[in-house]
Sequence to fold (110 residues):
Amino acid sequence: MGKTTTPVHLTDEHLARFDRDGFLVVEDLIDPERVAALGDRVREYTHGGRDAGALRVQIEPRVTRGEERVDHPGDGIRKIDGLVEHDDLFRALGTDPAIVAVITRILGRT
Fold:
């Protein structure tokens, strides 16, 4: 599986955009193969093939109330909590040095 690309240097413009918008898109931080593998892993949890174990899965309330129909129960999942703590691919993502460096740069400002 691919790793992140080279570390990203955040400019003052990036930080200003984060301050203005509340989020920041960092192009090419994660390579496409890794993004695909993470998407596949989520689908394994939501559509079968991998036991959710200690993960906490939240179903979309409109699905639970019957106000919205989905083709597969996995399509009605709103949120999966605990991926970084309990899944090796997501743990590697959450501790990747290039990603941590971006977060540290954003949060480390005074």
Remarks:
- The mean pLDDT is 91.
